Amino acid sequence: MSASPRTGGRTQLSSLALSDAADEYLTYLAVDRARSSQTIRAYATDLATALGFWAGLKQPPARVADLSRDHVRAYQRHLGQSGLALSSRARRLQALRGFLRYALREAWLEEDLGAHIDIPRVSAPLPKPLTTADARRLLDHDASRSEPDLRDQALVHFLLSTGCRISEALAVNRSDLNSDGRLVVRGKGSKERVVHLTPAAMAAISAYIGARHDRDPALFLNYDHRSLAVGTRRLTAAGARHIVARLRRERGVEALRSPHVLRHTTATELLTITGNVRLVQEVLGHANLNTMQGYTKVVDQARTNAYREFSRRLAPSHDVRESD
């Protein structure tokens, strides 16, 4: 990261380069907001796109204080004409707005240029949840006594039981487990929440731990020999995706396209059973109810289909002929 000259605790507007400002913002996201390394890389790429566009202008803004509404509007027009997918444009504009608002907070800018950014609404399609039969096929599988097979079964049970993100599940240590099935996980923004393991999930995890002879603190391990070369055996997200792809093939569960399908299945099942959006929001660790709209649509559609079938069955038959 480039060092920026400061005066009285504030970076001098006259000398702070755009690239330095972007570096400081990324450091803030990593240190103060505890964003993941993957998120930081994505923000860095998106900000570099904006800075690269401005650098190609006839009169490029070299300093953060040089930015104006015209620069922001020009970049928005550029993205609109780029042919990028709506989701990609929205992501890049979201990153830029966050940076500009941080610049205002740090007094690098005198105006909230981020307020002039219109981010397109993107309705991200949710993955298709597993059917009850498919979920049972995964959960009721008799795993062999090999550690990798027991790990796979424990991981499936863990994800379906808790509704955790895969990153949350892979960060769990053996010492985090409690005998009552309650578990504290750390989600986005380092926010903690309590999730619950079913008795079946506890049994699958206990069987896996009981078969291990290592002292690694991680709950889920990578058994690829290449993991030893990097000095850690903790299962990675890429490793989890590989496991899920293999289980989809071996157990014939076509809808199991990613680990997130298991989280979505848990949310949909809980919402169908309870109808309690707030409860499912807490289980999933979502910050606001807006993120639950996709799940409620799934349940609303199921409810609509049920009422249609109900109406069809109660509708009078026009084929019934009166007897003579």
Structural features, described:
By secondary structure, the protein is mostly helical. Helices cover 52% and strands 4% of the residues. It has twelve helices and four strands; from the N terminus they run ββαααααααββααααα. The protein has a two-stranded antiparallel sheet with strand order 1-2. A two-stranded antiparallel sheet has the order 3-4. Helix 2 packs across helix 4. The longest helix has 22 residues, at 293-314. It starts with 5 loop residues before the first strand and ends in a 10-residue tail after the last helix.
Mean pLDDT: 82
Number of domains: 2
- Measure the end-to-end span: 94 Å
- Derived structural class: mainly alpha
The CATH top-level class label of the largest domain: Mainly Alpha
Query: What's the gyration radius in Å?
Result: 25 Å
Which fold name fills CATH's third level, the topology of the largest domain?
Answer: hpI Integrase, Chain A
User: How many DSSP E strands?
Assistant: 4
Strands of the widest sheet, in order across it, are 1-2
H and E order:
EEHHHHHHHEEHHHHH
Q: Please state the overall shape, judged from the principal axes of the Cα atoms.
A: elongated
Q: What is the CATH H-level superfamily of the largest domain?
A: Intergrase catalytic core
> What fraction of the residues are assigned to beta strands by DSSP?
under 5%
